[in-house]
Amino acid sequence: MTSDLKSEIMTDSKKLSFDSSKIQDDFPILETKINGHRLVYLDNAASSQKPEAVINALDNFYKTTNSNIHRGLHTLAEKATNAYEHCREHVAKFIGGVSCEEIIFTSGTTESTNLVANSWGNENIGEGDEILITEMEHHANLVPWVLLAQKKNALLRQIPITTDGTLDLTDINKLINEKTKLLAVTHMSNVLGTINPIKELIELAHKNGALTLIDGAQAVPHMPVDVKDLNADFYCFSSHKMLGPTGVGVLYGKKEILEKMPPYILGGEMIREVSFEKVTFNDLPHKFEAGTPNIADVVAFDTALTYLENIGMENIRNHEIEISKYAIEKLTEIEGITIQGPLDETIRGAAISFTDRDVHPHDISTFLDSRGIAIRAGHHCAQPLMKVLKTVATARASFYIYNDRADVDYLAETVKEMRRYFRG
Ligand code: C6P
Questions:
Q1: Whether residue 100 lies in the annotated active site
Q2: Cys bridge to 300: 46, 57, 121, 415, which one at CB 3.0-4.6 A?
Q3: What ligand 1 atom has the least distance to the C-alpha of 186?
Q4: pLDDT less than 70: residues of the chain
């Protein structure tokens, strides 16, 4: 990237909600050269980069605090337990001020949805019951329900999408009915970027006696989320998409529901008393956290939450509205490029999928990579959605706090160059 372009970033990014170019300095990986070019990282929907503070927190834990938790009586064990439980308190506050008993650490969104399917689902879904999802679900909020429905002879139904990539709610009063036992919906689509009207859907589900699970993997990193206000029964998300380490996820569940659910993984820590004849279970949330958890990564996730709070989730949302608007403008100007998903930046996040009339998404990604731009191309773990979109794959540029207008300009210019290259 030329220094002229860099100074343009500085001026232009001032128009955004905060100065992303300053934030870039906190992310050591953004100094990396990829194929001789400055890394322009636009694969944030897959996983975000980590600020120095989070990297240091991880390093510091192993240097000063490392020990197993909830077991030992020595000083380090107590220090590690406190650090781990501090993160739980922080998460509980971050998503709207819920109780710590309602926060279960998992390995990611995928484990969170699987926990609900295997525990609550196995106990509560029966023959003829209905589970309602949408056509835009990620496999993590789809495969567990397909298999559960098969096992229980239940019916899996889908809310369709409109041609602009929003939910088609025309028949919602038929789709949610007295047979619906669970509504499992993504808060924000990882492919289309669509933010779904989940508060209204949750209300409607509750009126029909159904529980609700929200896949918040793409929402919590990018906007303020208050699970109490939404009145969600279960809400799932992952640390690695919000500046934190990989291998940590969250399942929020209402206490009265979690209390009735059987544990899903069995072993140490999740028990109260064990004999050869009988086992009783630990209190919430430990009932669902068997074995040694991912202690160091949970502790570093705490630092990621602080980093996000210092910027402000409202500011992050505004930044992404602005950057999405700009990216949509720039990409739609390019002949042959079609955006998959809503064009209105106020109802979407900054994961922007596009297709090229002439070039396969894998070739788009490879070409952009040769210029230092990381995007994702493929089905994005949403194969049924690809069928609905009548495509096999899309290219997806997804933005975060360290991306600015200069990144969008560089993306758009490189997409044009890519088209010239492939079309001759
Ligand atoms: N989507 C993407 O590139 P895990 O892998 O468990 O942290 O998150 C799964 C998941 C669940 N729901 C949604 C909406 C998601 O976007 C993801 C992860 C990544 O789109 C990797 S496939």
A1: no
A2: 57
A3: 14
A4: 1-16
